[in-house]
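Q: Sequence in, structure out?
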Amino acid sequence: MPSLLRPYAIAIAALIVATLVAGCGGHTATRQDVIARANAICFTAQQAARSVTSPGAGDTKALAAYFDKVAPIVAKEARQLAALPRPKPRQATLNHYVDAVGTSVADYRAAARAAAAGNDGGVTQALARLQSTGATRYARAYGLNQCIGSARGDQLSS
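A: Exactly. Output:
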């Protein structure tokens, strides 16, 4: 091959390789992909939260310890959910769900602080906020069946 054509041949070969690589690895996440990944994240978080022993009634120190253990589990779940791709179909619903789970982290931490201070009213308020985030409604609307009830404090029967 003449030396004048060699740079062009290399450039064309590089362009062909780049096109093939982009075509093969360019899978855009679908809503079904996101549902599968989110359900796996929620399942793992629920299993971890269920492994934390629920405190007995009236034991505020144990209640504070419970919330202190569950808050990082929910925080990890929220971070993982926030990192998911956001395909267009029902994107707003997914965004609302992720925001609601993120908000629940602060509510778990508030419940832990209130329990540690012996503030039953503060615990009740934090639990009420957990129940009213809308996370379950958004999870159901998006099709996140494994996420229904996740991050809501449902594993704590009080």
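The mean pLDDT is 84.
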